[in-house]
Amino acid sequence: MPLTSPWRADFPALAILESQGQTYLDSAATSQKPQALIDALTGYYTCGTANVHRAQHHPGERATRAFEDSRIKVARWLNAACPTEIIFTRGATEALNLLAYGLEHLITAGDEIVVSALEHHANLLPWQQLAKRRAAKLVVLPLDERGIIDLEAAASLIGPRTRLLAVSQLSNVLGAWQPLAELLPLAKAQGALSVVDGSQGVVHGRHDLQALDCDFYVLSSHKLYGPEGVGALYGRGESLLKLKHWQFGGEMVRVADFQHADFHAAPLGFEAGTPPIGGVIGLGATLDYLSRLDANSIDRHELALHSALRIGLAEREGLRLLGDPQLALVSFTVDDIHHGDLAHLLTEQGIAIRSGTHCAQPLMKSLGVEGAIRVSLGLYNDGVDLQRFFEALDQALEMLR
Ligand SMILES: Cc1ncc(COP(=O)(O)O)c(C=O)c1O
């Protein structure tokens, strides 16, 4: 079956990159953008910008309406119960820091915050630092050999002192879906809150946060084919009530005098200052575009592409895959070859992949590797991209051996 992507032409940058001899296989870091987003941004910036939630003039009303429409679109995309459960942030990292500060008052000395061994620094360091501030303990769930959180170990490590569980949906290094349906109830049974880092997961398949039953979920727009500088934090209605305000300034306050202030509830109370208005509107347009595509066809395409990538890598001698990747990306090392040297030669041949520790240094250490090459896929990649990658890989390996 030829691996063609019917959506490739919707992403104009790919043709330009191709004309420059570049093959883009780094979508887990950030994705290329659809024409629908570019059109929406052009429309917004050419029709007159205005700040949101404050101006009574017509451009202000128009910007506010478009901004709030995006909130509805994100809520719909995640199947949140209500748009007010969506807080716009500047990315997944900011959303996780918001949570680590907003929930700090619930953590006392000796409490336990549980993360997994595969977390991106963005879903590790905010909790590590929170644990330090509150003299709490950071508990790390181990993985099995496939790179999946070990549920038996989790059942024994999540206990009465657990106040919070923060785990990824899909690993940015191992490409493995995590067993959230089994894991989250373990936290809930102990009265602990759950935070899901959906940065990688949200890009693949369709998601239903009401069914997932997490307290909080974070995403970054730029990985989901949307603009940079925008993220979203979902919080279940009653879980949002537990959050303390963390950034202070304009528009998040109801009344203020020199000594006191009274703040808005979520979402506005957590969106201090001027938000990334164009970006939020662009994210809405991106979700409109994605909603028009056939989700089953995308799933089939992404699986076929991933399987071809895995098979091709398995055919090459001396390559070691990290874990048992299921979708979206594959990370690997090569016996006796430094990942940096290989990445250098791939880059020279126009292959855009990532090498290093992928913002997951503790995971790399526990896997016993210094770093790895990561190839990651978007819905626009095709068989030609893979062919170019494998040709470049073979050439690089030949040179290095
Ligand atoms: C799993 C995971 N979590 C969090 C992040 C942080 O996302 P951002 O840098 O967009 O805030 C990333 C980015 O690579 C990621 O892969």
From TrEMBL:
Similarity field: Belongs to the class-V pyridoxal-phosphate-dependent aminotransferase family. Csd subfamily.
UniProt-recorded Gene Ontology molecular function terms: cysteine desulfurase activity; pyridoxal phosphate binding
Keyword Transferase: yes
EC number in record: 2.8.1.7
Reaction catalysis annotation: (sulfur carrier)-H + L-cysteine = (sulfur carrier)-SH + L-alanine
Enzyme's top EC category: transferase
Domain Aminotransferase class V, chain residue ranges per copy: 23-389
Name of this protein: cysteine desulfurase
Keyword list, A-Z: Pyridoxal phosphate, Transferase
Biological-process GO terms, alphabetical: cysteine metabolic process
Cofactor (UniProt): pyridoxal 5'-phosphate
Organism: Stutzerimonas xanthomarina DSM 18231
